[in-house]
Amino acid sequence: MQHAVGAPLPPPPGAGWGQAAQQPAGPPGWAAPNQPAAPPHPPAAPPSMETTGHVQLPPGGPVPLPAPPAASAPADTGNTTLAVLLIGPAGAGKTTVARHWARSRRMPTSHISLDDVREWVCSGFADPQTGWNDHSEAQYRLARRTCGFAARNFLANGISCILDDAVFPDRPVVGLGGWKRHVGPGLLPVVLLPGLEVVLERNAARSGNRRLDDEEVARIHGRMAGWYGSGLPIIDNSGYDVATTAQVLDDVLARSIASPPAW
Predict the structure, then answer these.
(1) Rounded to whole angstroms, how far apart are CA atoms 155 and 141?
(2) Domains of the chain, each with CATH number or no CATH
(3) What is the pLDDT, as a whole number, of residue 4?
(4) How many Å apart are CA 163 and CA 230, to the nearest integer?
(5) Which of 84, 87, 61, 59 shows the shortest CA–CA distance to 169?
(6) Which of 36, 95, 109, 143 could form a disulfide with 105 if both were Cys (CB 3.0 to 4.6 A apart)?
(7) Model's pTM, two decimal places?
């Protein structure tokens, strides 16, 4: 038997309310021998707050801007709960750097990759490499909302998060505006933008649907250059290894906390 999409599934055979489920069926008010009559409808369960483990989750809300560190504190973010958006073209090293930065922090930190969430769709995946259309756009927006929801839940439980995405400066409402709506005004964006030759070399080492052709990589890299002059911090990691880039990222974030960029 088929059921409408989004409709609740029917109860499994034998499911019911307590011991009454084990008794033979009968009209409302009917009771099996030696059993008290059951009310026609089960009583409504009292509402309860959603929980995850032992930690209660408050309603989803924006993450506030973190407090600036004390003047005598070292220039790092190790004791601060943060929400970070790492922006860059394909091949910039966003995912690798974000994962390394998250693993090396003293505070609990999660890494949320937009590409990973998009690939949760196993059947009917809309690959932008086959042409950007309404279907791929819808899946991209759905993945961004999912990432934003996950980020808020991590932050509500005291866990920092870093998200990575190829956000374009010529689409501010869809890009930064979308992330700001989903996560909150305390989101700290940083642009990772190495030189074109480095991006092409790194992209060539990728596989699957994450590897783009050289023309597309060059086009994306050219659009990303629009972040210069935007006021957002930009890291050119052309000559850095992963660990060095993650350290530079932390230094940039410490300065962003003390003096938030206007975006």
Answers:
(1) 21
(2) 83-258 (3.40.50.300)
(3) 45
(4) 20
(5) 87
(6) 109
(7) 0.67
